[in-house]
Amino acid sequence: MIDIVKLSKGFGTRTLWSDVTVTVNPGELLALVGPSGSGKSTLLNCIGLLDRPSAGQILHAGKDMTQFGRREIRHFRRDVLGYLFQNYALIENATVAANLEVATKPQRSARGKAGMAIAEALERVGLAGREKEMIHHLSGGEQQRVALARIMVKKPAVVLADEPTGALDHANATTVIDILREMSDAGCAVVIATHDDRVRDRCDAAFAVHENALVTQAPTKPEGAPAEQVSAS
Ligand SMILES: Nc1ncnc2c1ncn2[C@@H]1O[C@H](COP(=O)(O)OP(=O)(O)OP(=O)(O)O)[C@@H](O)[C@H]1O
Ligand SMILES: [Mg+2]
User: Fold this and answer.
1) How far is CA 163 from its chain centroid?
2) How many domains does the chain have?
3) Residue 177 belongs to domain spanning
4) pLDDT at 54 over 80
5) Is the separation of the CB atoms in 117 and 150 below 8 Å?
6) Which residues fall inside 5 Å of ion ligand 2, going by CB?
7) Domain assignment of residue 103, yes or no
Protein backbone atom coordinates (compact mmCIF):
# COMPACT_ATOMS: atom_id res chain seq x y z
CA MET A 1 0.00 0.00 0.00
CA ILE A 2 2.65 2.53 1.07
CA ASP A 3 6.28 1.68 0.42
CA ILE A 4 8.80 3.95 2.08
CA VAL A 5 12.12 3.43 0.33
CA LYS A 6 15.46 4.73 1.61
CA LEU A 7 13.87 7.84 2.99
CA SER A 8 16.10 10.42 4.67
CA LYS A 9 15.38 13.69 6.37
CA GLY A 10 17.59 16.33 7.86
CA PHE A 11 17.50 20.00 8.71
CA GLY A 12 20.66 21.89 7.74
CA THR A 13 23.62 19.73 8.71
CA ARG A 14 21.56 17.64 11.14
CA THR A 15 20.35 14.21 9.99
CA LEU A 16 17.13 13.16 11.69
CA TRP A 17 16.89 9.70 10.14
CA SER A 18 18.30 8.17 6.97
CA ASP A 19 17.65 5.20 4.68
CA VAL A 20 14.32 4.43 6.29
CA THR A 21 12.71 1.53 4.42
CA VAL A 22 9.36 0.18 5.56
CA THR A 23 6.08 -0.98 4.01
CA VAL A 24 2.69 -0.19 5.49
CA ASN A 25 0.04 -2.63 4.28
CA PRO A 26 -3.76 -2.41 4.44
CA GLY A 27 -4.89 -4.03 7.68
CA GLU A 28 -1.65 -3.25 9.49
CA LEU A 29 -1.32 -1.20 12.65
CA LEU A 30 2.24 0.06 13.10
CA ALA A 31 3.68 1.98 16.04
CA LEU A 32 6.42 4.55 15.66
CA VAL A 33 8.21 5.08 18.96
CA GLY A 34 11.43 6.75 20.06
CA PRO A 35 12.58 9.66 22.16
CA SER A 36 11.12 13.14 21.90
CA GLY A 37 12.82 14.94 19.03
CA SER A 38 13.85 11.75 17.21
CA GLY A 39 11.66 12.63 14.25
CA LYS A 40 8.44 10.63 14.61
CA SER A 41 6.14 13.53 13.72
CA THR A 42 8.46 14.51 10.89
CA LEU A 43 8.24 11.00 9.43
CA LEU A 44 4.42 11.05 9.68
CA ASN A 45 4.44 14.49 8.06
CA CYS A 46 6.50 13.15 5.16
CA ILE A 47 4.11 10.19 4.66
CA GLY A 48 1.15 12.59 4.88
CA LEU A 49 2.78 14.91 2.31
CA LEU A 50 2.97 17.83 4.72
CA ASP A 51 6.76 17.80 4.62
CA ARG A 52 9.26 16.70 1.99
CA PRO A 53 12.01 14.17 2.71
CA SER A 54 15.62 15.08 1.85
CA ALA A 55 16.00 11.86 -0.17
CA GLY A 56 14.18 8.63 -0.97
CA GLN A 57 10.74 7.63 -2.19
CA ILE A 58 7.25 7.12 -0.77
CA LEU A 59 5.33 4.90 -3.17
CA HIS A 60 1.55 4.67 -3.18
CA ALA A 61 -0.40 2.90 -5.94
CA GLY A 62 2.84 2.68 -7.90
CA LYS A 63 3.55 6.40 -7.80
CA ASP A 64 6.35 8.20 -5.98
CA MET A 65 4.44 10.71 -3.88
CA THR A 66 7.56 12.75 -3.10
CA GLN A 67 7.28 13.97 -6.70
CA PHE A 68 3.62 14.96 -6.43
CA GLY A 69 2.55 18.46 -7.38
CA ARG A 70 0.05 20.52 -5.41
CA ARG A 71 -3.01 18.99 -7.05
CA GLU A 72 -1.95 15.36 -6.49
CA ILE A 73 -1.04 16.19 -2.90
CA ARG A 74 -4.48 17.67 -2.36
CA HIS A 75 -6.19 14.59 -3.84
CA PHE A 76 -4.16 12.19 -1.70
CA ARG A 77 -5.00 14.13 1.46
CA ARG A 78 -8.66 14.42 0.54
CA ASP A 79 -9.34 10.94 -0.80
CA VAL A 80 -6.88 8.59 0.86
CA LEU A 81 -5.55 10.07 4.08
CA GLY A 82 -6.87 10.55 7.59
CA TYR A 83 -4.45 12.54 9.76
CA LEU A 84 -4.86 12.70 13.50
CA PHE A 85 -2.66 15.63 14.47
CA GLN A 86 -0.79 16.02 17.76
CA ASN A 87 -2.67 19.33 18.21
CA TYR A 88 -6.04 17.97 16.85
CA ALA A 89 -6.32 20.59 14.03
CA LEU A 90 -10.05 21.16 14.49
CA ILE A 91 -11.91 24.28 13.42
CA GLU A 92 -12.02 26.01 16.82
CA ASN A 93 -14.78 28.49 16.13
CA ALA A 94 -17.28 25.91 14.87
CA THR A 95 -19.45 23.19 16.35
CA VAL A 96 -18.54 19.54 16.78
CA ALA A 97 -21.03 18.66 14.01
CA ALA A 98 -19.55 21.20 11.59
CA ASN A 99 -16.10 19.74 12.16
CA LEU A 100 -17.37 16.26 11.35
CA GLU A 101 -19.39 17.36 8.31
CA VAL A 102 -16.13 18.50 6.69
CA ALA A 103 -15.12 14.84 6.59
CA THR A 104 -18.28 13.76 4.74
CA LYS A 105 -17.63 16.04 1.76
CA PRO A 106 -14.89 14.06 -0.02
CA GLN A 107 -17.08 10.93 -0.10
CA ARG A 108 -19.80 12.75 -1.98
CA SER A 109 -17.42 13.98 -4.65
CA ALA A 110 -14.72 11.43 -5.26
CA ARG A 111 -14.83 8.49 -2.95
CA GLY A 112 -18.43 7.31 -2.91
CA LYS A 113 -17.71 5.13 0.12
CA ALA A 114 -19.76 6.06 3.16
CA GLY A 115 -17.97 6.22 6.46
CA MET A 116 -19.68 6.10 9.82
CA ALA A 117 -22.60 8.44 10.56
CA ILE A 118 -21.69 11.47 12.66
CA ALA A 119 -23.91 10.53 15.62
CA GLU A 120 -22.57 6.98 15.67
CA ALA A 121 -18.93 8.13 15.52
CA LEU A 122 -19.52 10.57 18.40
CA GLU A 123 -21.11 7.82 20.44
CA ARG A 124 -18.14 5.51 19.86
CA VAL A 125 -15.69 8.12 21.18
CA GLY A 126 -17.85 8.80 24.26
CA LEU A 127 -19.27 12.14 23.04
CA ALA A 128 -22.86 11.15 22.23
CA GLY A 129 -25.17 14.12 21.75
CA ARG A 130 -22.42 16.76 21.80
CA GLU A 131 -22.94 17.80 18.14
CA LYS A 132 -23.96 21.39 18.88
CA GLU A 133 -21.11 22.30 21.23
CA MET A 134 -18.35 24.65 20.11
CA ILE A 135 -14.90 23.10 19.76
CA HIS A 136 -13.25 25.81 21.88
CA HIS A 137 -15.56 24.87 24.77
CA LEU A 138 -14.29 21.28 24.79
CA SER A 139 -11.39 19.96 26.83
CA GLY A 140 -8.18 18.85 25.11
CA GLY A 141 -9.08 15.18 25.49
CA GLU A 142 -12.57 15.80 24.11
CA GLN A 143 -11.10 17.61 21.11
CA GLN A 144 -8.73 14.70 20.55
CA ARG A 145 -11.73 12.36 20.43
CA VAL A 146 -13.65 14.65 18.04
CA ALA A 147 -10.60 14.48 15.74
CA LEU A 148 -10.80 10.67 15.84
CA ALA A 149 -14.55 10.75 15.19
CA ARG A 150 -13.86 12.91 12.13
CA ILE A 151 -11.59 10.16 10.78
CA MET A 152 -14.22 7.49 11.47
CA VAL A 153 -16.71 9.54 9.46
CA LYS A 154 -14.23 9.94 6.60
CA LYS A 155 -13.13 6.26 6.57
CA PRO A 156 -9.81 6.81 4.81
CA ALA A 157 -7.55 4.02 3.48
CA VAL A 158 -4.51 5.37 5.35
CA VAL A 159 -4.54 6.77 8.88
CA LEU A 160 -1.59 8.59 10.45
CA ALA A 161 -2.06 9.29 14.15
CA ASP A 162 0.36 11.48 16.10
CA GLU A 163 0.16 10.78 19.85
CA PRO A 164 -3.56 9.94 19.64
CA THR A 165 -3.76 9.17 23.36
CA GLY A 166 -1.58 12.07 24.51
CA ALA A 167 -4.35 13.97 26.31
CA LEU A 168 -6.45 11.02 27.45
CA ASP A 169 -7.09 9.08 30.64
CA HIS A 170 -6.73 5.30 30.67
CA ALA A 171 -10.35 4.47 29.72
CA ASN A 172 -10.47 6.93 26.81
CA ALA A 173 -7.01 5.88 25.62
CA THR A 174 -8.26 2.29 25.52
CA THR A 175 -11.28 3.40 23.45
CA VAL A 176 -9.03 5.23 20.99
CA ILE A 177 -6.68 2.31 20.48
CA ASP A 178 -9.68 -0.07 20.16
CA ILE A 179 -11.06 2.15 17.38
CA LEU A 180 -7.73 2.39 15.54
CA ARG A 181 -7.42 -1.41 15.83
CA GLU A 182 -10.93 -1.82 14.36
CA MET A 183 -10.11 0.52 11.50
CA SER A 184 -6.99 -1.46 10.68
CA ASP A 185 -8.91 -4.76 10.96
CA ALA A 186 -11.36 -3.30 8.43
CA GLY A 187 -8.47 -2.88 5.97
CA CYS A 188 -7.05 0.51 6.79
CA ALA A 189 -3.25 1.03 6.97
CA VAL A 190 -2.53 2.77 10.29
CA VAL A 191 0.70 4.31 11.60
CA ILE A 192 0.72 5.69 15.15
CA ALA A 193 3.49 7.82 16.65
CA THR A 194 3.31 7.20 20.38
CA HIS A 195 5.09 7.37 23.72
CA ASP A 196 2.42 5.13 25.22
CA ASP A 197 3.58 1.52 25.76
CA ARG A 198 -0.02 0.32 25.95
CA VAL A 199 -0.63 1.65 22.46
CA ARG A 200 2.61 0.17 21.19
CA ASP A 201 1.72 -3.23 22.61
CA ARG A 202 -1.60 -3.30 20.72
CA CYS A 203 0.14 -2.73 17.37
CA ASP A 204 1.26 -5.43 14.93
CA ALA A 205 4.79 -4.06 14.85
CA ALA A 206 6.74 -1.25 16.46
CA PHE A 207 9.55 0.79 14.94
CA ALA A 208 11.84 3.20 16.71
CA VAL A 209 14.11 5.90 15.41
CA HIS A 210 17.49 4.99 16.90
CA GLU A 211 20.82 6.59 15.94
CA ASN A 212 19.28 8.00 12.76
CA ALA A 213 17.93 4.63 11.60
CA LEU A 214 14.59 2.91 11.91
CA VAL A 215 14.83 -0.21 14.04
CA THR A 216 12.13 -2.74 14.75
CA GLN A 217 10.97 -3.62 18.25
CA ALA A 218 8.82 -6.50 19.39
CA PRO A 219 5.55 -4.98 20.67
CA THR A 220 6.02 -6.73 24.01
CA LYS A 221 9.78 -6.28 24.13
CA PRO A 222 11.30 -7.74 27.32
CA GLU A 223 13.32 -5.31 29.46
CA GLY A 224 16.73 -4.62 27.95
CA ALA A 225 16.24 -6.73 24.82
CA PRO A 226 18.29 -5.30 21.97
CA ALA A 227 16.51 -3.72 19.03
CA GLU A 228 17.09 -5.33 15.68
CA GLN A 229 18.08 -3.09 12.82
CA VAL A 230 15.82 -3.35 9.78
CA SER A 231 17.09 -0.64 7.51
CA ALA A 232 20.82 -0.53 7.08
CA SER A 233 22.23 2.87 6.24
N1 LIG B 1 11.15 22.85 9.96
C2 LIG B 1 12.10 22.46 10.80
N3 LIG B 1 13.30 23.06 10.83
C4 LIG B 1 14.28 22.68 11.65
N5 LIG B 1 14.17 21.66 12.54
C6 LIG B 1 12.99 21.02 12.58
C7 LIG B 1 11.89 21.37 11.73
N8 LIG B 1 10.85 20.52 11.99
C9 LIG B 1 11.29 19.70 12.96
N10 LIG B 1 12.57 19.98 13.31
C11 LIG B 1 13.37 19.29 14.33
O12 LIG B 1 13.34 17.90 14.08
C13 LIG B 1 13.38 17.18 15.31
C14 LIG B 1 12.31 16.12 15.30
O15 LIG B 1 11.04 16.71 15.51
P16 LIG B 1 9.73 15.82 15.59
O17 LIG B 1 8.62 16.74 15.92
O18 LIG B 1 9.61 15.01 14.36
O19 LIG B 1 10.07 14.86 16.84
P20 LIG B 1 9.17 13.79 17.56
O21 LIG B 1 9.92 12.49 17.56
O22 LIG B 1 7.81 13.78 16.97
O23 LIG B 1 9.13 14.37 19.05
P24 LIG B 1 7.94 14.33 20.16
O25 LIG B 1 7.98 12.93 20.72
O26 LIG B 1 8.39 15.35 21.14
O27 LIG B 1 6.65 14.67 19.49
C28 LIG B 1 13.23 18.22 16.42
O29 LIG B 1 14.48 18.41 17.04
C30 LIG B 1 12.78 19.47 15.69
O31 LIG B 1 13.28 20.62 16.30
MG1 LIG C 1 5.94 14.37 17.68
Assistant:
1) 9
2) 1
3) 2-221
4) yes
5) no
6) 40-41
7) yes
